[in-house]
Each structure stands twice: as structure tokens, then as C-alpha cells.
Amino acid sequence: MSTAQSAKPKKKRRLAQVAQNIKDSYTISRRSYPWIGWALLGILVVLLAVAGVLAAVTSQALWYWLLMALVFALMVDMIVLSLATRRASYMQIEGHPGAVKAVLDQAGRGWYVEEQPVAFSPKGQDFVWRLVGRPGVVLVAEGSPGRTQHLIEEEKKVLRRILSTVPVHVISVGTAEGQTRLIHLERTLRRLPTKPTKLTNTEIDRVSKRLSSLSSKGLPIPKYMDPNSIRPDRRAIRGR
């Protein structure tokens, strides 16, 4: 009896958490896309109308098609809301020092992302992040291309010296011409070439450990530009 009673509050807390997550996602999306509420409602109305037509054409029970349309509409709405929330979150943190790290943390399996930048410029608040994956070593520059070019070249010299056979890719993130927008960073990472060299899981682990051992002391990043001070809603970025 006590077990059943204790299960009810847990279930209520889970439902409340789900409702809160949906509310947070909607709030974040609406800041960048004021029309998101109408879009979600429109999906529901259209699918319910289609259900009515299908019920008339097939001569089946109306309630059956309406129920199916409602379930399908909720699924589609959740997908649209998740995508809108993810994109809106990136748009809202774009331009803040350390915003790139929030995106790199969502890179997923197959990537090793270092916690601290491998280079930074206190004057311009520019960062260079490093990650290792199937394509090789990737350097992600955050800031003005003119200011980060020197940082990138210095890091590439180090990589060529200790990992001469591993491909090195460079991505410059920003809003200037020729740069990759923050919202497109994940897609750019997925499209990096893996030929003629593609690292295996063992090689990724070996390379990441080698690089980590070289930068184990870390960089003395000033508190006023610490990327960890930028705390975007990562739950919203994941669409949950």
C-alpha cells in the first residue's frame, strides 16, 4: 500500500517536470519565433480537418480518426517545438564568449571535446576550442578571423609536430562573411571529410589522451571571460 502511495507523488513529479520542460521550450522558442504558438495550433487544426475528411471518405468512426489525428499532431508539434527551441537557443547565445562550447557539448558520440580552450585572446575575448573525432582533430575558432588566425596557426604548428599523420580541420565561428554561424556548427562538424583518413574509436581515444596530457595544466582564463560563466539552457538546447 505504501509503495503504491509513494509511486503516485513520483508520477506527479515526472508529469510536472514534463509540463515544465514544454513550457520552458515554448518560452525560449517564442523569444526568437513569436509565431511558434500559431504554428503549433495550425498543425493541430489542419490534422483534425484531415481526420474529418478521412472519416467521411472511409465511412469509419469520426472519433477514431480524430484520436489518431490528435496523437499525430502532438508528435509533430513536439518535433517542431524541439527544433525551434534548439535553433532559438543558439541564436540567443550567439556572440557571447564561450557560446561555441555549449554547442560542442552537444556533439554527441564519436567526439572528444576538451573542457578548456587550447588558446584564447584576453584582448578580443577570442577562443580556440579543440575536439577529436572521425575526421581527425578539429580546431574551432570563436571570434574575429583576423584575431584568431594567429592562435590557429600556433596550434596547428603544435599539432603538426606531435601528430603529423592526423588530419587537422579548422572552423571559424561567427557572423562575419565566410564564417560558420553558431546554428550551423553541428552540421558543419558532421560534414567534415573522413577520407582518405578516418580515425577509429581506438585512435580517437589515443589522440585525445595525447593532447590532454599536453594541456593538462590548462590555461589561466580570466574570470571575466571564463566560458563557463556563460550558462545557456542546455536542456532547452537538447529540446527537452
UniProtKB/TrEMBL annotation:
| Sequence ranges of Basic and acidic residues compositional bias | 231-240
Q: What Pfam family does this protein match (any one)?
A: DUF4191
Q: Does the keyword Membrane apply?
A: yes
Mind telling me which residue stretches traverse the membrane in this protein? 35-57, 63-84
Q: Which domain of life is it from?
A: Bacteria
Record key words, sorted: Membrane, Transmembrane, Transmembrane helix
Q: Where is this region: Disordered?
A: 221-240
Supply the name of the protein.
Answer: DUF4191 domain-containing protein
Provide the species name. Actinomyces ruminicola
